Every structure is written in C-alpha cells, then in structure tokens.
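Supplementary Text 2. Reproducibility record for the structural model of the 290-residue chain.

All settings were left at their defaults, and a single model was retained for analysis rather than an ensemble. We include the record here because the model underlies the residue-level annotations in Supplementary Table 4.
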Amino acid sequence: MNLNTTAAKIRAPEITFSHHPACDAKEIYVIGYKASLLFKEGTVGGVTGAENEKIIGALLSSIKESGKASTFLYDGRKLTIIALPVAQKISRNNHPFSLHDITDSLEGLHSAAREHLVQIWVVDKQIKKFMCPVAAAIARALPLYHSKSNLKELAPSSGVVVTFVEDDGVIVNLNCQEWQTASAVCEGVRLAAQLGDMPPAELTPDTYAQKCQDIANGFAALGVTYTEIKGDDLRQKGYGGIMGVGMAARCPPRMVVMTYSPKNATEHIAMCGKGVVYDTGGLAIKPRPD
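Retained model, structure tokens:
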C-alpha cells in the first residue's frame, strides 16, 4: 500500500558533482570560511563577475564571524554566501568544516532546485580532504522522499551542480578520485535518508527487498549477486527467528543476501544488519491475567 500515490510519481532534484560549473544557474551558493570567501579573481570574483565586487563586499560585511546572507546580482541571479564558523567555534561533535551548519544553511534548497538550476561552490584550501563529508551534508538537504500531493513536477532546467574550489581559485580536477567518491557518498546518503523517511505502510518488506534488488542489479556487471529467502523458506532453511518475528505481518519477512566476489580477493568479509520496517517499541498486545 502506498499512502500517497500522487507524490510517489514526482522525482526529486538531481545532484551533480562537476568541475564544469553551471553557467546558466539562476541561483548560486558559495560556501566556505569567511577568509576564503573574500572577493578574489577565480573564487567569489570569478563566480559573480567583477561588476559585483561592491555587492559581495557589503554581503560579507553583513556577516560578523559566520552566518548566511543573500542578495541579487546585477544580472538578476540570486547569490547566497554561507560563511562557516572557524575551528575554535565548532563543537567537538562536529566536523572541522561544520557540516551541520552547511545542511541547516541549505534550507530551502530543495524547493529552489525544483524550479531552476542551482550552482553550489565550496571553497577551501583543504577542500580535497572535505569533499566527501561536504557531499553528505549537501545530500541531507535534498531528500529523495516526500509526501506532498501538491508538489510540482521538476522544471526542464533544474537540479544542483556542486563544484569544489581551492581558495586560490583552482577547481579540483575531475580526475581526482575524491570526485567519484563524493558522488557515491551523496547517492548513498540520499538513499539511506529515503528509507528512513518512508513510513511503514510504504516501506514494507516487499518494497525494501525491491530496493535491495535494484541496487544489486545496478552492479550486476561487476559480479554482484542477489538472493532472497522469503516466508516459509526461512523456517525450512533454519532461520526460524526471522520468521517468528515477522510471520504475522501482511508482507512476509525475508532475508536478503547480496554478494560481491572480486577477482583475486584474499579475504572474506560479511556485513550483517537488520532491515526493520516497523517496530512496536515493546508494545504489549497480550491480555493481562485476571
């Protein structure tokens, strides 16, 4: 059963990591420490154009140490600068690049990215070290799951393009391994958030298993295989515990096994986990004795 069949048909904005910035983007975000965001040729200056130097200066002056400020440039594009807190102001539980602040500051990005193309520039002298964590922070601001019936379809030119820049204005080379890793991290974070956001009536064992199979099918060319043990087969194969816990549900429980066997592998690693789609939290449904 799907709680909202209308919403399920509407796609979420895509995130692309590229060293080719989107010149036709209607909205721009520039993220980094304030010192790295000063108007320089190649960084903020290269992004916005020399004619906007005074606007950028005023925008940065409105931010004391860290924070967020927005304005419109002379050509009509919207610019938002996100100045991150310096290391001394960051909680020990946060990342040095203040990932929680990045996600929080991108509130509203999901709506904007549905209507037009958005370019995000992330600037720092150590950006190669931070590409994957930053990708995860941006991914959290653009969830795949929604349950709104009145959500409009994506505009023809929509989505988010993310470009990483060192503070001297040099764009990180696309051949850098971190580009591919950042893209994979972003995809994984959005998928995990989607599974966590879906209510039990939508994320049943059937739909959960289908998600797993879709992932395995995507890597079939690399030798990833998919096996599913379902319903009464669980008891027959000795997995009575799984069957006992989920046998009363409308959708029968199952165990999914995905295997990747690369050539010349020297060790065997097994990763196990529970795909819990509904938990009563200890709800007592047995009658009390008289």
